[in-house]
Amino acid sequence: MTWPGGGGLGFLTAGLLAALLGAAPSTASAQEQQAPTVTVAKPITRDIVEDDQFVGRFEAVDEVAVRARVAGYLQEVHFRDGAIVKAGDLLFTIDQRPYQAAYDAAKSQVDSSTSLLDFSRMQLERAEQLAKSGNLSVSTLDDRRREFLAAQAQNQGAQASLRTASLDLEFTEIRAPLAGRIGRRLISQGNLIQPDSTLLTTIVATDPIDFYFDIDERSYFAYARDARTRGGSMQEGGGGIDVVVHLADRNEKAFNGKLDFAENRMDQGTGTMRVRARFDNKDGVLQPGMFGRINVPGSLPHPGVLLPDEAVGADQNRRVVYVVDDAGKVSMKPVRTGPRIDGYRVIREGLSGDETVVVNGLMRVRPGVTVKPEMTTLPPKATETEEPSQ
């Protein structure tokens, strides 16, 4: 069979071979195109102090339930719900008219008894002068002395009744016993108030504020040892150990405080001890009842290796990181992680700090593959993110 143009088969075969050879890339070039790009960095190495972390709750340093000391009908409320009040601020007024009348009556009794006492004193002095000259019998002198002592006792009783009436009148004005934030009023005007039983409102101190949390025996021994080196004790002053508390809202800054108290015994049921830290709260961000995570120094300063949480992967029940050598080959290293410091995860075991670690792109790597590393430098402090589940 003759192909048009002659020699057509040989020409076609040669053309196909040339096209195939020209289109086929080299093996090295294909491998280079297939190598994934990942971000790598050197771990941060510096002296660190590992913190122990506990969960606790804020409580007011002082809290009071405001009640009346006298009975009566509520006449006026002098505060706005939720306002900040100062010690001595007027909060409620009970109808004062019955107590003003009682005060006026007691005062009149004092005036009357004082007049009688002055008259009895003059009579006694006159009788004593007459008795000295022999112009008055001893029995009459005794009668004048008895009358004076009776008038004196009557005056003292009237004075006591006046003080009671004055206190009752004063108690009709219910004032704030401490400075802090007041709650809502729990009774409306016109209602009858019973003394010592009707709850009117509550006040909680806001600055400073306490944080309570529970620690185990191991932690207690460590903190107590630190407190003794400072010349104190956990129970009295908490050793003055500096602590930091974080709120649920990561946008809020951390708050610095000090341990200042621990209970005088371990709880037999839980094997824990309740500890207290105190924090300044001038801006009023911290509120009683809030939860928080407190970090307490749990070690002496020592060299540490830090990595972002994104650089730590999981292999079944262990934590791993991926290390890249000079040729771009990836290997996997098991590590033991610790707490977070400055936004980084402490690597307690598995790294020396000289390795080049994959910090972004873990999903594109596996042991033995070759990657295209892009070197970056980790900042001294990372941006805080939510704590990953362990």
Automatic annotation (TrEMBL):
<dbReference type="InterPro" id="IPR058627">
    <property type="entry name" value="MdtA-like_C"/>
</dbReference>
<feature type="domain" description="Multidrug resistance protein MdtA-like alpha-helical hairpin">
    <location>
        <begin position="103"/>
        <end position="172"/>
    </location>
</feature>
<keyword id="KW-0732">Signal</keyword>
<dbReference type="InterPro" id="IPR058624">
    <property type="entry name" value="MdtA-like_HH"/>
</dbReference>
<feature type="signal peptide">
    <location>
        <begin position="1"/>
        <end position="30"/>
    </location>
</feature>
<dbReference type="InterPro" id="IPR006143">
    <property type="entry name" value="RND_pump_MFP"/>
</dbReference>
<dbReference type="Pfam" id="PF25917">
    <property type="entry name" value="BSH_RND"/>
</dbReference>
<dbReference type="Pfam" id="PF25967">
    <property type="entry name" value="RND-MFP_C"/>
</dbReference>
<dbReference type="Pfam" id="PF25944">
    <property type="entry name" value="Beta-barrel_RND"/>
</dbReference>
<feature type="domain" description="Multidrug resistance protein MdtA-like beta-barrel">
    <location>
        <begin position="242"/>
        <end position="295"/>
    </location>
</feature>
<dbReference type="GO" id="GO:0005886">
    <property type="term" value="C:plasma membrane"/>
</dbReference>
<dbReference type="GO" id="GO:0022857">
    <property type="term" value="F:transmembrane transporter activity"/>
</dbReference>
<dbReference type="InterPro" id="IPR058625">
    <property type="entry name" value="MdtA-like_BSH"/>
</dbReference>
<dbReference type="InterPro" id="IPR058626">
    <property type="entry name" value="MdtA-like_b-barrel"/>
</dbReference>
<protein>
    <submittedName>
        <fullName>Efflux transporter periplasmic adaptor subunit</fullName>
    </submittedName>
</protein>
<comment type="similarity">
    <text>Belongs to the membrane fusion protein (MFP) (TC 8.A.1) family.</text>
</comment>
<dbReference type="GO" id="GO:0030313">
    <property type="term" value="C:cell envelope"/>
</dbReference>
<dbReference type="Pfam" id="PF25876">
    <property type="entry name" value="HH_MFP_RND"/>
</dbReference>
<feature type="domain" description="Multidrug resistance protein MdtA-like C-terminal permuted SH3">
    <location>
        <begin position="305"/>
        <end position="363"/>
    </location>
</feature>
<dbReference type="GO" id="GO:0046677">
    <property type="term" value="P:response to antibiotic"/>
</dbReference>
<feature type="domain" description="Multidrug resistance protein MdtA-like barrel-sandwich hybrid">
    <location>
        <begin position="63"/>
        <end position="198"/>
    </location>
</feature>
